[in-house]
Design goal:
It contains 4 helices and 15 strands. The chain has 191 residues and is an alpha+beta fold. Strands 8-9-12-7-13-6-5-10-11 form a 9-stranded mixed beta sheet. A hairpin with a 4-residue loop joins strand 14 and strand 15. The chain is elongated, with a radius of gyration of 33 Å.
């Protein structure tokens, strides 16, 4: 058994380089031929045949780019929360197609290292009336594989501890937003 394995290994070792070689030869009519077996070249052309080496595997095609965007669950009356990054800090923003501007809570802005004291005081108007707020420029907001910015956001407290703000139309305009109630999902794709 050991001897048979050794013979098989020697045959493979000897046969592999010859089988992998590739030869090119040109016939009298100018047709170029390729072969891996030099014995198949007609005798009249064998002396002029060229060993062009081993055939190389074709490189793998480049991977298709990962589809950018984001798919979020849509269930009942639950709010749709989008993860975004501001200066690398993760924020949870409520998707709000009715908000003209993106709103970020003061504590979330502070976590991202931005001081609202350098912003511009403004008044905002919503369904509950008017309130003082601050308009602050941020370099960019990373959302669903896209970078939006520079951007002016409104700094104002938001209810609840799990939400850092509202993602408004000023950012959403950079996306195609699709609500699919039947499939139970919301899709954000950068434009």
């Amino acid at each position: 058994m050991r001897r048979a394995a050794l013979v098989a290994l020697l045959v493979l070792a000897i046969a592999t380089p010859a089988a992998a070689a590739l030869f090119r030869w040109t016939a009298a009519d100018g047709t170029i031929h390729y072969t891996g077996d030099p014995e198949s070249i007609p005798e009249a052309y064998r002396a002029d045949a060229v060993d062009i080496g081993h055939p190389a595997a074709r490189p793998a095609p480049p991977a298709a780019p990962a589809p950018s965007g984001l798919v979020l669950p849509l269930s009942g009356g639950a709010p749709v929360v989008v993860e975004a990054r501001l200066n690398g800090v993760l924020l949870s923003l409520l998707l709000d197609t009715g908000a003209d501007r993106t709103v970020i809570a003061p504590a979330a802005l502070a976590r991202a290292g931005i001081d609202p004291a350098f912003g511009t005081p403004i008044r905002i108007t919503g369904v509950t009336g008017t309130a003082p707020a601050t308009l602050v420029a941020v370099p960019r907001l990373d959302v669903a594989g896209a970078r939006v910015g520079p951007l002016s956001v409104i700094v104002h407290p938001v209810p609840g501890e799990s939400i850092d703000g509202l993602l408004g139309r000023d950012v959403l305009d950079a996306f195609t937003v699709t609500f699919d109630a039947a499939a139970g999902r919301v899709t954000l794709r950068p434009r």
